[in-house]
Amino acid sequence: MIPLVSNLAPLVCALLLAVTGAGKLFGRQTAQLAANTVLVRVLNDGRRATLALRTVGGVELALAAALLASPEALLPGVGTAVLGAGFTGYLAYARATAPESSCGCSAAAEGPIGVRSFARAGLVAAGGVAAAGADAAWWSQLTRRPGGSALVLAAAAVLLLCASADLDHVWLLPLRKARIKVFGNPLPSAAGERVPVAATVQLLENSLAWQTAMPVVRSALLDHWDDEGWRVLRYAGSYRDARGTHPVSVLFALDLTLTVDTAPNPAVRVSLIDEETEEVVPSSVLTPVPVRTALPLAT
Amino acid sequence: MSHSQESGGRRLDRRRFLTTAAVGGATIVGASALGGLDAEAAFAEPMDSLDTAIPAAFAEGRVVAMNRNVLDVAGSHGERYLIQLTNATSIWKLRTTTAESIEVGDGLYARGAAMPDGTIAADAVWVNIVNVYVTIRGIAKDRLHLTHGNEELVGHIVPDTTTASYLGGALTADLSRTRIGQEAQVLGAWRPADGNIDIARVSLGH
Lengths: 299, 206
Fold this sequence. Notes:
Shape of chain A: elongated
Strand content of chain A: 5-15%
Structural class of chain B: mainly beta
Membrane topology (chain A): Multi-pass membrane protein
Mean pLDDT of chain A: 83
Number of helices of chain A: 11
Organism (chain A): Actinacidiphila bryophytorum
Number of strands of chain B: 14
Distance between the termini of chain B: 37 Å
Subcellular location (chain A): Membrane
Largest sheet of chain B: 5 strands, mixed, barrel
Keywords (chain A): Membrane, Transmembrane, Transmembrane helix
Oligomer: heterodimer
Order of helices and strands of chain A: HHHHHHHHHHHEEEEE
Domain Methylamine utilisation protein MauE (chain A): 7-131
Number of domains of chain B: 2
């Protein structure tokens, strides 16, 4: 099994490096990609970062060609392992100094450095070590043990797919969708459950009562509780009269079973309690919203 | 919350008193329409102060220190704010909560009135609030996997708190109508520890 893996490692590494190397060397977005990596800061210049990224792409391509052409040689395998170790070091440095920067590793997708980036770099290093230990060419291995080779290649492909975000839309999303189709949506359906407080707040904020009390209300929702079929929402507010400005509690009481779907025009009880005297403030301090008069229609 | 038995009892008594006032002698107003002052209002223009002599103030930044009810906040552009919390200050951190839940390192938006001594007397504080447009990439029992642009995010579902709105309808605890691939607007609280989000509200199909 081990010789089989190590004899096929040059092929797997070569294919991976060819794809990522070509993407970096010839890709149109390399400059844009480089701009988001930590290389810009290290090299002090966007153009130099692009050049560095393209050079790495060239090295990857050269290694891929060497791995494909002379799989039994030690050097290409060692080179790949060193490259993988270099990627890991670069990622660790970037992660430590600029965690939000893009890794620039696989050319197609941008994204912050995460577990998958490290997994990819680790795979390159491990693949290089395995390739260095190859004692037979991959093509002779393929013809000698086609079944085992197919299995190893398939396993390598799955491993690389899992470590790369570029092809998620091809396999991961359909897989997740299928799981939801088969097992149902795992999130709560909450049929017949109580109305969330946020829904009552939404109902209040769509009401004329809110519009009327708005000039008095100063805070966002301060407190809420349910009592005898009512949901009471408390806000802080203040109002002015001849004696000055007074702090008040603005209380709204709504039917706790209603939402904007079931009650487009809810009745809302509004009251103001003076915070200092604890007395109910007459509702005349509220400014009624003028009823809109219909525009005359031309006939 | 660090309420003693006694203060918990007082709190209930106070609610009882306020309920009687709210349901008993209240003005009843019926019918519809206009804006709000919920969590989304954190992103709206500040309101004018009621007292025209006191200018309205707005602050945004990270909490660097807390001293009793004064928050020392470092703004994103090098400003420094001292924010005074009072018992009339509403505090939102995923849900309506109290000053005890604010921690050093939290981000916040605050609005209130600028005081003559340079502090801000806060009317409302929103802690770690985020409002992002995302695509749903995965659904699990207690979280949504989301992408915001090229960035991957995990949105945690918080029982009794996370709500959803479909096609502009009422907010509901029913989250089972979410679909992979849908575009969504997520309002929630950012978690400084791991950079993920606790979801307050997910709006779908707007």
